[in-house]
Amino acid sequence: MPFILILLLEVILRLSGYGHDLALFIPDEDHPGSLVMNRYVSERYFTDGANATIGNFELFKIRKAKNTIRLFVLGESTTIGYPYMHNGSFHRWLSYRLAQMYPDWNFEIINLSLTAVNSYTVLDLAKELPNYEPDGILIYSGHNEYYGALGVGSTSKLGNSPWLIQTLIGLKHLRVVQLIFNTMRGLSGKGKTDTSQTLMERMAADQHIPYGSEKFNNGIAQFKTNINEVCRLFSVKEIPVFISNLVSNEKDLQPLNSYMKEAETSAKSYYDKGAAAYRISDTLAAKRLFIKAAAHDQLRFRAPEQMNEIISNAASRYAGVYLVDTRKIFEEHSQGHILGNETILEHVHPNLLGYSLMSEVFFSALKIHHILPADPQFQMSLRQLQDQMPLTAVDSLFGTYSVVELKKAWPFQETTIKHPIPNTFEGEIAMAMIKKRLPWNEAMDRLMNFYEHKKDQKHELKVAEAVVLEYPQDAGFCAAAGKLYALQSNLNKAINYFHRAFVLEPSMDLARVLFALEIKNRQPEKAENYINYALTVNPDNQILLNAQAIVKQLIHLEQARRTAPADSEISKQLNDTYASLQQN
Length: 584
What we know:
This protein is an alpha/beta fold. The protein is built from 24 helices and 8 strands. The chain has helices at residues 2-16, 77-80, 90-101, 119-126, 162-171, 175-187, 199-203, 214-236, 267-279, 283-296, 305-317, 326-332, 352-368, 382-388, 393-408, 425-434, 440-453, 457-470, 475-487, 491-504, 508-520, 524-537, 542-563, 568-583; strands at residues 25-27, 34-37, 60-61, 68-75, 106-111, 136-140, 241-244, 321-324. The protein has a 5-stranded parallel beta sheet, with helices on both faces. Strands 1-2-3 form a 3-stranded antiparallel beta sheet, with no helix packed on it. A hairpin with a 6-residue loop joins strand 1 (25-27) and strand 2. Helix 4 packs parallel to helix 8 (214-236) and helix 9 (267-279) runs antiparallel to helix 10. The longest helix is centred in the middle third of the chain and has 23 residues, at 214-236. The radius of gyration is 27 Å and the shape is globular.
């Protein structure tokens, strides 16, 4: 009888519209046949809905198309790309690079990361992903283990039992359970959440967690249990996992909470000794002491080194799980090989150099373990990626300002930091975004119009490519980027973007443009694809049939030239045939 009453109440609540569907993915109304992350999924993990965070909305096809490599990304605020958000995250650096190197392949890199969550969220989402044909899973998680949702020191704590917590997460799908949680919160007397505080402050319940204490060890145990289960789950399914170790600011961040500062074993004492060793260039001693200082910082927004040991051991233990050594590459780009401001903005979030380095180590791991196609059509080094990555000045300023505001608040309280927004058009747009008066897509529209008016094609292109990264399934944005590259006579990139538009929405106009560009680029085999498409639409068109015959002749001549590269007569025939085709 109680079960029937609960079921009846569940039906009534659903019909009345109470609560939310907490499915991981939902159909995207604007792109039939595609799925997108549900904006409400984080409510599974937060006991207070006001703290629940929203992730990215990155589309992927329900049916994975041919020549598609699908990767899911799991983690927390670093993994989502804070503070740059749009195109600053490591997975967007990776997406851009792969799209340039492998233009004939489609890469779906779907970031499911959420701010202020930890390994409980990673494990819960991981359980659903084998159903969606992933070619690999990318993971960066561990800094939020104490204060992330359901963490042992969090305001969203639900106990220390992993089994109980995972059961409650599952039950949260029921509207009845959502009602119970909301009612309990109302009865607790906590009242309305003070959103004037930063999310960091709202989530940190226990701000004194001593090194080696029971709560400290519970956080380590929680992470170990969840991460090992994530790795086991994917290993059994034979889905490759690329899990990164963790980085945090050791050299340039004083302890956030050094209880009993005068004690020899306090975080402050270790930090001061490390700073003294660093000043006399004793970097080995300095590094050891800075790491100890971070470990003894009782405000646990930085993962202790035990987390990295757990990650490394899991990668060694489970087949198909690979360690991504982000720490090593960050140390290589840090003074004295000690992590600090060279790559990290405040306590844990990388700067743009750091995010590019993260993308590099994940890229290398994917390549080494044969997730990527064997032969890229084009090469792109890390330096080339850093030079070409389409991150606009507005995105960069938005990130810089966000960090300044974060550092002014608890627990940093650095009130003397200067305002970073310059008196420029880009600064004006960034400030409008910061004040939530202007959404990102409208900001990019204004920026594009500004550069177009100034005839600044270099920055026009950066905006166009940034928009394609954000909306890779929009054929119009792809074609706009292709047109700008064609105006600059950059044939390879023009072809890349027009081809992506054609794959999304084939048309005679795009086929005509791509045919002309491939002929100009002397790629008759690829040009033939577009003639063949045109003939499926107009099979009796004599002009198309004549062009097809000439293209076949060009393919034959190109093959002959590869056999006899010194034959001047073949070269002459090729040049004449290309010229005649381009004239017509």
